[in-house]
Specification:
By secondary structure, the chain is α/β, with parallel strands linked by helices. The protein has helices spanning about 15-25, 65-75, 110-115, 125-140, 150-155, 165-170, 175-180, 195-210, 220-230, 275-280, 285-295, 390-410, 425-435, 450-455, 475-490, 495-500; strands spanning about 5-10, 30, 45, 50-55, 60, 85, 90-95, 100-105, 210-215, 235, 240-245, 250-255, 260-270, 280, 300-310, 320-325, 345-350, 360-365, 420-425, 465. The longest helix is centred in the C-terminal third of the chain and has 21 residues, at about 390-410.
């Protein structure tokens, strides 16, 4: 029986970051992953020889010296990634049904302001106030600026600002208000709930610089896995953890679905905190805390249509599209059966095989888990797909056609270019990413209850830690920062952050 210094449950971005950092620090680590493919939202899948991303459609902050660049540089993967910078004058294009304009979000703050001034010439004061506030909010987050793991006092002054209320306060132009919030599918934004810091930290990284992974985001997971193994670590796939067992006030070992056990000095869970606590049978973690976490709302899920194009039929574009109905920007997830979809996002995969034509396209629209709950007792595995029955396949086909109708209105002729399409629903996200309800971004942040939705990496078992998107922020940047926070907690100091900043 092999003993490890650290066992990490789950190989999402947070877990892999922890494993890589702790391996570099001399710890003997083992990552256990229930799926065949590692990476969580970094996973890709191939249909008709076209690569589709499950989660990483674009990345921010990867220009020299920016925060994700420094993290990747320290991890030793920056110069090995195949990246393509998105269009400098438009990383996102905002489309509104019934309006023929394309509203561009540009890289670089001056460029961002100037591009929007083309459509809103009288709103320079508002746009400058908006950008200044985004930068101010970001400056209050020490880890985001690679200063220290956490100084709550520093950011406390900007935690309780509502995104919608702030945007509405800088301009009374309803169209501009809608445009500034239009890519909120990046964080499942909700009116009177989403804190401005979530909007600011995410948008700022894309305004600083915006990138796509060429041939998919799974390269990040593969490069981190190579590092982990080179540092003497182990990654075990197809290995599901059933229980975290407490012994004498500490996490003693984990029990696996195959009956095996693994022992370590420390354990880190990259699973949803609620799921982690459900597996951990100990009186030391009080029911009040368990129930508090259980009571937190999870973000909405999605329906994704992955299209394979006929060869050289659809031109490639170096930006993303967010399309919605006017007046619904904060209520896109509140669709009904009749009016779905109220909005959608379009991501064009970057391929090394062609710069001129797109091989595939992903279209993402919100969908609540309840809409597929009829099939919740069915599970997809990599070896056995499409086993949810005929009614499920009919549901997918019907929804796909409705979504295609909506997209065709903005992109006439799209259907003629389609060779085949494949669908993912909230159940797909549940089975492959590991959230019980297919939630895109985990626990919902609420500006009225900010402390409730900040989850500490520490637990009542002194050697059991949490990591991943539910701690601080979701996305590749957010999850890698959560990994750093967890490592700092385990190591008992911030030395890792200094190393990252000076990488």
């Amino acid at each position: 029986m092999e003993n490890f210094d650290v066992v990490i449950i789950g190989s999402g971005m947070g877990g892999l970051t922890c494993a890589d950092i702790l391996g570099k620090e001399g710890f003997k680590v083992c990552v256990v992953e229930k799926n065949k493919q590692i990476g969580g939202s970094l996973q890709t899948y191939v249909r008709d020889k076209v690569i589709f991303d499950s989660g990483v459609h674009y990345l921010g902050g990867l220009a020299k010296g920016q925060n994700l660049y420094q993290i990747f540089k320290y991890l030793g993967i920056m110069d090995k990634l195949k990246l393509q910078q998105q269009d400098v004058d438009a990383f996102d294009k905002i489309l509104i049904e019934g309006d023929d304009n394309e509203y561009c979000f540009a890289q670089g703050y001056e460029n961002f302001i100037n591009k929007l001034l083309e459509h809103f010439p009288g709103e320079e004061k508002a746009l400058r106030a908006y950008c200044d506030k985004i930068k101010e909010v970001c400056s209050k987050f020490p880890l985001y600026n690679l200063r220290s793991a956490d100084d709550f006092n520093e950011k406390s002054g900007v935690l309780e600002i509502d995104t919608k209320a702030f945007i509405d306060s800088i301009t009374n132009n309803p169209k501009l208000q809608g445009i500034l919030a239009a890519n909120n599918a990046l964080y499942a934004g909700q009116a009177d709930k989403t804190p401005l810091y979530v909007h600011a930290l995410i948008l700022n990284s894309y305004i600083e610089s915006s990138w796509k992974c060429v041939d998919g985001g799974s390269q990040i997971a593969k490069l981190l896995a190579k590092n982990i193994r080179e540092n003497g670590g182990t990654i075990t796939r197809n290995c599901e953890v059933k229980k975290i067992v407490e012994e004498n006030g500490m996490a003693g070992h984990i029990e696996l679905a195959n009956g095996g056990k693994m022992y370590a000095r420390y354990f880190i869970s990259n699973m949803h905190p609620v799921k982690t606590l459900e597996m951990t049978d100990t009186p030391l973690i009080k029911n009040a805390y368990r129930n508090r976490l259980k009571g937190l709302e999870n973000s909405v899920s999605a329906f994704t249509l992955n299209i394979v194009f006929k060869k050289n039929s659809f031109r490639y574009f170096k930006h993303n599209y967010y399309c919605g109905r006017e007046g619904y920007v904060w209520a896109t997830a509140d669709h009904t059966e009749e009016n779905w979809p109220l909005g959608y996002a379009i991501f064009c995969g970057a391929s090394s095989r062609s710069q001129e034509y797109a091989e595939g396209l992903s279209i993402l629209a919100y969908m609540r888990y309840q809409e597929v709950e009829a099939w919740k007792g069915t599970f997809n595995t990599v070896s056995k797909e499409n086993d949810r029955g005929e009614t499920y396949n009919e549901f997918k086909k019907r929804k796909a056609e409705i979504l295609l109708d909506a997209v065709e209105r903005k992109f006439p002729g799209l259907r003629k270019c389609i060779k085949a399409y494949y669908v993912a629903t909230p159940l797909s996200y549940r089975d492959y990413i590991g959230n019980d309800d297919g939630s895109l971004y985990g626990i919902v942040k609420d500006y009225k209850h900010t402390l409730k939705t900040f989850i500490s990496p520490r637990t009542k078992l002194p050697n059991l830690y949490l990591t991943g998107q539910n701690l601080n922020l979701h996305g590749i940047l957010g999850a890698s920062m959560s990994g750093i926070v967890t490592c700092c907690a385990l190591l008992g100091n911030n030395s890792v952050i200094n190393k990252i900043r000076n990488a």
